[in-house]
Fold this protein.
Amino acid sequence: MALAHSQHSLSMLGKPRSFRRPFPAALLTVLLGATLGMSACGPQEASSAAIVDGVSISEQDVQSISSEVNSLAQGGQKLSPSDALLSMILAPYVLDEAKRVHKTIGESQARLVVKKIAHPSAATLRFAEMQLAVQALDQASKNLIVAELNKAKITVNPRYGSFDPKQIAMAPSAPDWIKASATTPVK
């Protein structure tokens, strides 16, 4: 007679440990090691909104930018988390190019833009710097940034969509378990 799992557990309570079937220690070690290895080395870290050339952009930074910038918007268009992430993906490329062409934007200039935020996060200040810097760049510099983005390895958390380097935009992504169905003609 086979016992249900709960009955088996109850039936083992009064018996000495030697009667229990031990889980092989070697197998447990391998499983634990593989689990830890996969969780640390996967293409997407758990708290990352994106990874750009090995550098993680945290979900916390994306959310703080979105909420802090939206606190400044007065009835206007709100900054979505996907757009905040796009700015953070672009930031290192835009700021490096601005520095290269001697159009660096300083933190003090960024603070002026977000002066109504009592204590802006470092991510929000970087967002403001990037926004100011991109406006100061000419088309040749923007073309160089696009070329660099096309060479970059960018992995985006699917909840934010996917990065399209040709359009320099975030595209919404449908989960891979949702399949588009072929429409049948109506008779």
